[in-house]
Specification:
Blueprint lengths: L1 H15 L7 H13 L9 H40 L5 E4 L1 E6 L5 E7 L5 E7 L5 E6 L6 E7 L12 E10 L8 E2 L1 E11 L2 E6 L2 E3 L4 E4 L1
């Protein structure tokens, strides 16, 4: 019986550690039950008892670390929201957008330049953020332009219809780097998910990585 109880306790501890599902009170109850029903003629081995006690200490320490990490994450998220609130009401230029591919016609990707560019680069990404196609234009003047995408990836394979995201950037000449962006608007709200803050711009949310200019 003692071997069975000991084996059950050890397996329960091993399964519970990753998820923190077994509390220290549960552990103590199991240990007390094990001691209560042990065979007087074959008492619990001292080394085995010490090993289980060490498991209890490890469990308690892991739970303490877990609580500390959770508290730190909450504090960090609150701090990010507080800092992010200071950007509300500001006008942002965003270098990302989305495009719907119908699988039949070419898609037009709007880009705006605040200065003349030697070339403009557009990275088209799938839903997981993987770059499917990189488009590069020649020299372009300041103002609005549309980059045409034929719906194919870098290998020349046609992609399935759906919504894709894209990011734009530009290079200049003579040391000046023009700013390339997709849209411009006022940040009117913010949200935090998994510790990452995003800002409402019109009918979408953008991150700080999307924002290339703020005033």
């Amino acid at each position: 019986m003692i071997d069975s109880l000991s084996s059950s306790l050890t397996s329960t501890m091993t399964a519970a550690k990753p998820s923190m599902g077994l509390s220290k009170d549960d552990f103590l109850k199991l240990l007390i039950t094990q001691l209560r029903y042990q065979d007087p003629l074959e008492p619990l081995d001292q080394n085995q008892f010490l090993a289980q006690t060490a498991q209890f200490s490890s469990l308690e320490e892991l739970q303490s670390i877990g609580r500390s990490i959770a508290a730190l994450q909450t504090t960090t998220a609150n701090a990010s929201l507080t800092q992010g609130a200071g950007l509300l009401g500001k006008t942002a230029k965003v270098a990302s957008g989305s495009v719907t591919l119908d699988g039949i016609t070419n898609a037009q990707l709007p880009v705006t330049l605040d200065g003349a560019a030697s070339h403009v680069k557009v990275d088209i990404l799938d839903g997981q953020g993987k770059v499917m196609r990189t488009l590069t234009t020649g020299a372009a003047p300041a103002g609005q332009l549309a980059v045409t995408w034929d719906g194919k990836d870098d290998a020349g394979q046609g992609l399935l219809g759906g919504t894709y995201s894209y990011r734009v950037s530009a290079s200049g000449s003579g040391g000046a780097t023009p700013l390339a962006f997709v849209t411009e608007g006022v940040l009117t709200g913010l949200s935090s998910q998994d510790g990452r803050v995003s800002y409402r711009l019109g009918d979408r949310f953008v991150t700080t990585e999307d924002i290339v200019d703020l005033h």
